[in-house]
Fold:
Amino acid sequence: MSGLESGQYYHGLIYQPDCHLCPLRFTRMVPPDGPIPTRRVFVGEGPGDMELWEGRGFIGPSGVLLWKLDQEFAGSPPREESTWVTNAALCLPKEIKLKTGVVLRKEKVKELSVKACRRRLLWELRWVTQDNPDAVIQPLGKWSYRSVTGNWKAKIFAMRGSVERVDLIKQCEAYDGPPPVAAHSNAAATR
Structure:
């Protein structure tokens, strides 16, 4: 894969071919960021209000908790500088009223936006891990897990704490080695 030189830090969009399919296509995106290459990726479901305001992921209440838990479990300072952060959908989900008068509820909008962003996410994951089979991708919620694995019926609490290998060759049709995926629901921890 071509891309940035090793050790560079990137903040921006990787690949977004399907915005035209998304009900949130006219809203502001929160781009992914982090070091490239990376061996560790956090994939959230979507940005929150604070992330949208600042234009950076994982800085709101859930992000603060995530980095705190990360520090406690790792026994060292947070690894924000060594972790790529992204979302299954890059835009803040909200209810949308269509021209027909039909209202798409927030959960349906989230599903549609995650599906529209999926191709971007899969290529992004491949690019930032630079095909490292030891890279760990941690989906942080139902929609991020479903987007990474392609299992659209998965229940996050059934998968919580599990580790599985995801075959991204089938997911993005050009991948040479599956990185492991650890499922985690950060949003549930804040309730």
About this structure: Residues 1-6, 174-191 have pLDDT under 50 and may be disordered. Helices lie at 49-54, 61-74, 106-129, 142-149, 156-159, 168-172, 186-189.
